[in-house]
Specification:
Elements (H helix, E strand, L loop, with lengths): L8 H12 L8 H13 L4 H7 L3 H34 L3 H14 L3 H23 L8 H13 L8 H10 L7 H7 L3 H34 L3 H14 L3 H15 L6
Helix pairs in contact: 1-4, 4-5, 4-6, 5-6, 6-7, 7-10, 10-11, 11-12
């Protein structure tokens, strides 16, 4: 689990069979080993597990608790991450960090705790980027660019260090800004700040545009209006310049135009 990877596929299959379909839980040696391993991964002690494995009834209760922790932790972490990202992007890094601390205050599963701790560490790094203007190689480009822009909005002059120039050179092409325009902007802090704002604005607007179109497309598709659903993605492609969102719209349009899978 140190590399952030974990495999709950086997316990997921058992949970569906036993908890959803009502199939019996047969305590084979393989099943006992699976329950013991997974119980450890969700912070249930070996003593509790051993007691539960005495019979199939208590083993089923153990399975329910294991699955409850897996599903509940996943929901809690995903919800917190989404909230934290929204707060981060609006400049409320303290609020974003508190969201992750709230997860850590209640989450028992080590895997989810580890992910929350990583998120909290990254947010703390962004606080330092905003406070100092010094970039961190371990952090992603877009959040750092946002933190730098927030720093400028707080009244600080953008310092055009080599790292900041490199960041802007990496980010500009992701929003279809040419190399020539980027290099011209990098000649002064004022122009570089305007470039930064343009990059972030295109990313923000593109994301909102695509998400709105996805909601409309899904509703129309589910209502049987496939032509209307296609038009939502065509409307995105008519105005969108950000390559990432153009590609996503093209993929959705391709999916609508593809024949349905054969039964």
């Amino acid at each position: 689990m140190a590399d952030g990877q974990i495999d709950w596929d086997a316990i997921r299959v058992v949970a569906r069979q036993v908890l959803e379909r009502g199939e019996p839980l047969v305590l084979t040696e393989e099943m006992r080993a699976l329950l013991l391993r997974t119980a450890r991964e969700v912070a249930i002690t070996d003593e509790e597990t051993a007691a539960a494995l005495h019979n199939e009834s208590t083993a089923r209760t153990l399975l329910e608790e294991i699955w409850r922790r897996i599903v509940g932790g996943s929901w809690r972490l995903s919800r917190a991450q989404n909230q934290a990202y929204d707060l981060r992007d609006t400049g409320d890094l303290d609020g974003a960090r508190q969201v992750m601390r709230d997860v850590l205050a209640v989450e028992p599963v080590p895997f989810y705790r580890e992910q929350a701790e990583i998120g909290l560490k990254k947010l703390t790094g962004l606080v330092e980027v905003r406070a100092t203007g010094q970039l961190r190689p371990s952090l992603n480009d877009r959040p750092q660019l946002t933190a730098l822009f927030q720093r400028v909005q707080q009244g600080h002059v953008l310092e055009l260090t080599d790292e900041v120039r490199a960041l802007l050179r990496r980010m500009a092409p992701t929003t279809a800004i040419s190399d020539n325009e980027t290099e011209e902007a990098l000649k002064s802090p004022t122009d570089a700040t305007a470039l930064m704002e343009k990059i972030l604005s295109r990313l923000r607007d593109g994301q909102r545009r695509f998400v709105r179109a996805m909601y409309r497309m899904t509703s129309l598709r589910d209502a049987g209006d496939v032509d209307g659903a296609r038009q939502q993605m065509r409307d995105v492609l008519a105005v969108e310049v950000v390559p990432q969102y153009r590609k996503m719209a093209e993929e959705q349009l391709w999916g609508l135009d593809s024949p349905p899978p054969q039964p």
